[in-house]
Amino acid sequence: MKFEDYQPYLSPALAKATNLIVESGQGCYLTDIHGDRYLDFVQGIAVNALGHCHPKIVEAIKDQSGKLITASFNVVNYPTTLKLAKQLSEVTPGQLNSVFFSNGGAEAVDGALKLARAYTKRPAIIAFQGSFHGRTFGALSVTGSNAKYRKYYEPLVGSVYFTAYPSKDICPRGFDEDERTRFCLNELDHLFQYLIAPDQVAAIIMEPVQGEGGYVVPSKEFVQGIRDRCDQYGILLIMDEIQSGYGRTGKMFACKHFDVVPDILTVGKAIAGGLPMSAVVSSPEIMAEWHPGMHGTTFGGHPICAAAALAVLDEFKQSHLLDHVNEIGTYLKDQLVGLQKKYSCISDVRGLGLMLAIEFSHPDGTPAGDILEKVREGCLNNRLLTLSCGVHNNGMRFATPLNVKKEEIDQGVAIIDRVLSQICAK
């Protein structure tokens, strides 16, 4: 079997990172149809919280699929989905304990935007440069990580405004963290003064740690400054934790690093351990304005996905997974800093927990997306799957399972080291 033989039957709209045809997966590894084994540091783009085919998830899927596959959650209730809603509310921050289940991240973002407008009765949304929220029309309208995503689809959803996120790529060159924080908060204040009155803004949507935009971690002062302005003007704060949530940063949700509770939370990716599931989570007060029929779904709250999601939450408790993420995340970051010291082409190491990235630059400081592509190709040839990020595609993000082992980290870093020794000057 060759991918090329089947390519004519697939839309070219879906960009393919590799032509691998994968037959099975276990833990941190994938095996293709030829029996070749790959170390997977992508994990479905941070989807497989517990790695491929975790036994508890497989058993939960088998058990539920033998009972009921679906009857639509808007027609009947399922025990697994009801239990999941309750258990999810127990780990979400603050009073965010009312859940609307969806199927994917972009769908959850669309739902969150609709909920914000329904509750506030206001039209405008503010998003951030560098953000990625998905590719549906609503999610794409608040995505600002790369113009190529928006290029062919204007006009998008109206009344969306963008402001600066405290990334080195977005702020004036040479600014330190404090200066970036002040600059970006001032940019938001200027937006209120010159373009959109704050009493017309329904919500500000932000990733507490930007994903596609480069795994950028803002200062605590910046995130709290956004929260303060939302409180001042009656604006809802939507935190998109589809990638940063579910333990990826060492806390169940990244917003906890900043001591900020959003008004609406979107979760997805890792929630069901590999199955398609997402959710919009808010307070009962806000959800009360989303009256029956104002939003809907056929497959959302799927009983099999919910069964898998319950297994994921159980494993968080039983294995003390957050402790492991913090411990192994510190170890991985130390190894990446070691590579940075060894190779001049690595200009930055950043992130929280196991949401980490390295950035490649040329000697003059310009983004080195060309170097990253060579590194990724070399890694693939050495059977390591990697993922890029950043508007310049010069960042390598690490999306290992949250239960990744030290020896698997060592194996992956050794491959990257070997590839870099052939590409980058020491």
Separation, N- and C-terminal Cα atoms: 41 Å
Count of helical regions: 14
As a whole number of angstroms, the C-alpha radius of gyration is 21 Å
Care to count the β-strands? Answer: 15
Please list the strands of the largest sheet in the order they lie side by side.
4-10-9-8-7-5-6
- Using the alpha-carbon principal axes, give the shape: globular
Instruction: Outline the biggest β-sheet.
Output: 7 strands, mixed
Mean pLDDT: 96
What is the helix fraction of residues, given as a range?
25-40%
SSE string, helices as H and strands as E: HEEEHHHEHEHHEHEHEEEHHHEEHEEEH
Q: Please state the structural category.
A: alpha/beta
Strand content: 15-25%
Could you characterize the architecture of this molecule?
By secondary structure, the protein is α/β, with parallel strands linked by helices. Helix content is 38%, strand content 16%. It is built from 14 helices and 15 strands. It has a seven-stranded mixed β-sheet with strand order 4-10-9-8-7-5-6, sandwiched between helices. β7, α9 and β8 form a beta-alpha-beta unit. α3 runs antiparallel to α11 and α13 crosses α14. The mean pLDDT is 96.
Protein traits:
426 residues; 14 helices; 38% helix; seven-stranded mixed β-sheet; alpha/beta; four-stranded mixed β-sheet
Short structural description:
The chain has about 425 residues and is an alpha/beta fold.
Topology overview:
Layout: H1 3-6, E1 22-26, E2 29-32, E3 37-40, H2 43-46, H3 55-65, H4 79-91, E4 98-102, H5 105-120, E5 124-128, H6 137-141, H7 147-150, E6 160-163, H8 177-194, E7 201-206, H9 220-233, E8 236-240, E9 264-267, E10 278-282, H10 284-287, H11 303-318, H12 321-342, E11 346-352, E12 355-360, H13 369-381, E13 384-385, E14 387-389, E15 395-398, H14 406-423
Parallel strand pairs: 3-13, 5-6, 5-7, 7-8, 8-9
Antiparallel strand pairs: 1-2, 2-3, 4-10, 9-10, 11-12, 12-15, 14-15
Helix pairs in contact: 3-11, 4-11, 8-9, 12-14, 13-14
